[in-house]
Amino acid sequence: xxxxxxxxxxxxxxxxxxxxxxxxxxxxxxxxxxxxxxxxxxxxxxxxxxxxxxxxxxxxxxxxxxxxxxxxxxxxxxxxxxxxxxxxxxxxxxxxxxxxxxxxxxxxxxxxxxxxxxx
Length: 119
Fold this sequence. Notes:
Layout: H1 7-13, H2 16-27, H3 53-65, H4 72-79, H5 85-98, H6 104-115
Helix pairs in contact: 3-4, 5-6
């Protein structure tokens, strides 16, 4: 089209015929000049650490030993989804802070045990 012009100027000068020609040449599935491009992006962010079923079983035993009532079946079902460890730690921090009959020392040990489940 118009080399050296900015995008807005080019679009202002584009005619219906220019657009139809562009479509027929580069986009239309029956065109011999049709091109496709596939772009795949890979995240550079590391995957989050998951709370595994094995870690859940060990932590469940620690929670029971601390005298905290827990629905083991529900806990294992949730753990089977292997949620991010950060989410599990946040959940238990809040739970132990407000509702569980646990002293500070035992709370710290339980939360430390969770953090030790990192691979």
